[in-house]
Amino acid sequence: SEAKSGRTDLIFLIRFRHCCLLRNQRCIVAYLYDRLLRIRALRWEYGSILPNTIQFHMSAEEVEWFNRYKKSLATYMRSVGGEEGLDLTQDIKPPKSLYIEVRCLRDYGEFEIEDGTTVLLKKNSQHFLPRWKCEQLIRQGVLEHILS
Description:
2 domains; Ribosomal Protein L9, domain 1; two-stranded antiparallel sheet; 5 strands; Methane Monooxygenase Hydroxylase, Chain G, domain 1; GINS_bundle-like_dom_sf; alpha+beta; DNA replication complex GINS protein PSF1; GINS_A; 15% strand
């Protein structure tokens, strides 16, 4: 109000303060955007459930944003890829080959591949199978990827 009334010496200080406020606002928005990018990367790295040690350091709004992002990604993955959907989080880096050599760690029984052939998975047997079909069994501890 004093600057409007005629004190022109205050105009410089008002502009300087305004520029400082705008700079601080840009810094805060950049910081928050970086946090959101990191939270989005956590979904791809850890999956749909975050460890408690990470979730402890997040605000309630960040946890809510993570849950909405998780639901949005799941909806999208179900909408593409036919009946089963397409799991985009499965192969973040492209595989070197489509088939891998695996060793069976325990008796599992018959396992059907997409071309209709069945493979008998017995303990200590080795097979050359499509990567995408065996990844779930590798995670369950039925198969072990043999690196040669």
